[in-house]
Predict the structure.
Amino acid sequence: MSTSLFAIAGFINAALAIILGFFVYYKNTKKLENILFFLLNFSLAIWSLFFGFWQLARTEEFALLLCRLLCFGSIIIPFITFHWVLVLINQARKNKLIVINYFLGLIFFISNFTPLFVKEVKPELFFPFWPKPGIFFNLFVFVFVIVTFYTFFLIIKYYKNSSGIKKEQIKYVFLGLIIGYIGAATVIPLWYGIKFIPIGYFFLTLYSFILGYAILKYRLMDIRFIAGRTFVYLLSIISVFGLVFILIFLNNKLQVPVSINIFSSIATAIGILFFQPVFQFFEKLASKYFYYTFYSYQTVLTDLGKKLTQVLDLDRLSSLIVNTLTDTMKLDRTVILLRLQGNGDYRIQKNIGFREENGISLVRDNFLTAWLEKNQTPLVYEELSLIIRDVLKKEEKESLEKIKENMKKIEAALCLPLFIENKISGMIVLGNKISGDPYSQQDISLLNTLANQSSIALQNAKLYDQVHDLSENLQEKVDAQTKELKSAYEELKVLDKAKSEFISLASHQLRTPLTAIKGYISMILEGSYGKLPGSASKPLNNVLGSTERLVRIVNDLLNISKIELGKMELNKAPARIEELITSCYEEMEHTAEIKGLKIVWNKPKSCLPEIEIDKLKISQVISNLIDNAIKYTQKGQVEIKAEKTDSVIRISIKDTGEGLTKEELKMVFEGFTRGAAGIAYWIEGAGLGLYIAKKYIDLHHGKIWVESEGKGKGSAFYAELPIN
Amino acid sequence: MYKILIIEDEKLLSDMYEDKFSQSGFLTVMANSAEQGFELLKKEKPDLVLLDILLPQENGIQFLKRIKDIPELSKVPVIIFSNYDDPETKKKAFNLGARDYLIKTNFTPTEIVGKIQNFFKKLELDKVS
């Protein structure tokens, strides 16, 4: 057997070890297990590199130097391995043996600077130079055996107690280490002159492959994604550039009359063009046949995050979340449970793969909700054993056991709580991956971020739904009530019109007999039907007066019905207010005098401007106001004034009469009311005068109001008409 | 002596106005419907018509419409004399040539006679000038 074979094995081992080491190191330069793994592979690479060079050495001195150099690598391997394994099985912090471990390593490392470790080199078998042990090498072999056995003991013990991903990882770590160590151990016998070919050294290569496999398949140290992607890239590059080389090769063979430079440029361009589709092809292939997912944190997060903000419909949003999770991670089942407001019960919002009753069974009692709210983290089925082990309270332990059993039964692997202000608003329950792979730390933190985004989006959608429903209901109610009101209003309008029409009709009917009574009595009084006995004159005059009053009431009623039917029209003509007031004043003067009241008409000093008004109606308003003032005043005076401001002419009629209470002030311009004084003094009138006055002034776009300090303090009525 | 045609369906009122106008020196022709009024207007050629609005069958407005296009009839002045007080009707009546629109209940018979006498006085004055 040639030494060159061992040289080649050495260089291959060195290369693989350093590549694997750097891969893991660059995945996470801060994680202790990655750093230690890198150091382990680095020592392995030093050992293997000098092992290779040593096989090629021609002189004894050079071989001895190389043997000593390789020992710097091999010496520290078992000690670093010990530390790395402790980190992997989560026992590094508690274990004080690490210090002793490194102390021993340091002693052997130092001893290697002296001939006490490698004494000399001598020919053994077909090797021209093989190292011979110094005293420290013997000690090293002793310590090596102890440390290695203890390391494997720890690995096996941990393997038995672990489950899921950790168990699988540890299995491959064990396998890789045992092959590497057995391979390495076959080198030792020859040191002591035992003629055993160190055949195991070739197996050392397997160590890298096994750990590489564990990394890819079980996400040892979480570099699966990068490793997988690198693999697909390599395959794509090889395929594309293989094609390019084949093309160039064919070109050379077939002697195509095209310049080689142009042709290779074209071939390279084709290669570049084809790279993307080829890459996608391999990616799809890997994803289809190995359930391999090429998601990267950022891509999935940004994509889904973006979509989450675009969807407001609760059903569509939950479908989006469930579908994205199921598709990206290749899951067998996923369900979103949302918590109802009020009683805190859950309902299934969107479900793929779970049986309905199973999906909801996790949250049947309140324990899981309370537990998740307390811990604020996702619940991973595979971590439950560890959690249960560390829990101290007996009831909590039992409840967690129950949840573990239930999760196993319904095949749920992960519970992602959805939080709104630290309160659970729902949860996403995930099943297993179709590939059978467990969830990695990367998966869980990705899912956790997604859950946070989802809970906000779901909450928004829920609120949107509620508001939407509410506004729809409201709209319906408003519509229904508007319709009701409208028809009620229409009915009222019809009724109101009927009322006004009735008043109009009744009044007209009343007028004919009134005309006859009034006409005949006036004629009798005038002596048209013979001379009247003196005693009959007074009662007949009373009858005439009453009839006149009835006529006025009927006229008022007719006017109101006209106003209310919208039939009142103004016959506008230019007029001077003071002239209208003067004629009203002259008509009323006599009535006031009879009552013993002073009536004062303060004419304006300068002429008021002419304004466009319906003379008859405004006169009616003025005489009504003066008439009222006289009626409601027993003592004192009535004062009439007219003045001009910038835009209006204001008429005021002040009296020293009964005045009005606050309530009366409000009521006085409404129809069919009279001041309390009206009743007290038996003053005639139907309470329609002021109502009609207001309507007339309104028709002129004017203003009418009353002021009174209170009962017994008199009142002042004002009417304003705009100057056109 | 002026001749007045009074178209009034209420017997009570037409008797009263007939009494008053006769006593006041007018010649009175009484009709109790628009149709009869139309015939009497043609036959009697009065100086003035006092026309009620609410009449059986044809009403006062229809009467005005009927005489409007007959020049020899429409030259006779018509004063509406009714208790029916409706702005629209009022407007129509004026448009059809009515000289005035008086509400019966607002005036005693004496006042009406006064108004008619004034009307004729004014008419005479207009003729002179």
Notes: Chain A touches chain B at residues 508, 511-512, 514-516, 518-520, 522-523, 526, 528, 551, 554-555, 558, 562, 567-569 (CB under 8 Å). Chain A has four domains: 3-222, 228-287, 297-467, 573-722.
